[in-house]
Amino acid sequence: MRVLILGATGGTGRSALLEALARGHDVTVLVRDRSRLPPGSEKATLRDGDARDAEAVASAVRNQDAVISVLGIGKSLKPDGLIAAAAPNIVQAMDRAGVRRLVFTSAFGVGESMRDVPLLPRIMMATMLRKIYADKNIGEEAVRKSAVDWTIVYPTMLTDKPGTGRVRTGERLPLRGMPMVSRADVGAYLVSQLDARDYIRKGVLIAQTA
Asked: Across the beta sheet with 2-6, what order do the strands follow?
């Protein structure tokens, strides 16, 4: 499959990139800083650009079969309108190019996933993460209103631990405390959804198996 990955220089994005290449996909990445790509990504086609630039996204989307968005701001607490600006660019470019499949990474607590958030992380989301979540909510709304075959993935708290392959997924999950999942496992799951049909136009939570 010809796959465009947005956000391939972040922790989860790097995992998704290497997983997609390992599975034999023809991968293109749109990046602002090539030096942040992981070792082993040499087979990917590199496109320079910013996901907030509609023309750059439209050019990168052409001739693709699917798009994986793993866009994020890393450890910053300043969203800078990234997702609110990028999400409409992505779905509009896909619509014009006739690309149907979108696997879109959001965050646990955005949109409908808030209903499964335990008390402690809920407090964090309403305070220190409030602006980031507001940005993600705006972007997610653009995805949900689009005509593409989207799946929105909600990882719980991300860790840098090695992937285990032992994860729980579902539209609803019974979660307690501070549920976590490794970036490696999320990256692998994002790629697995490219040709899966279980969550078309649905959201899915992912957490480490307890």
From this structure: 45-48, 26-31, 2-6, 66-69, 101-105, 149-155, 202-208, 167-170
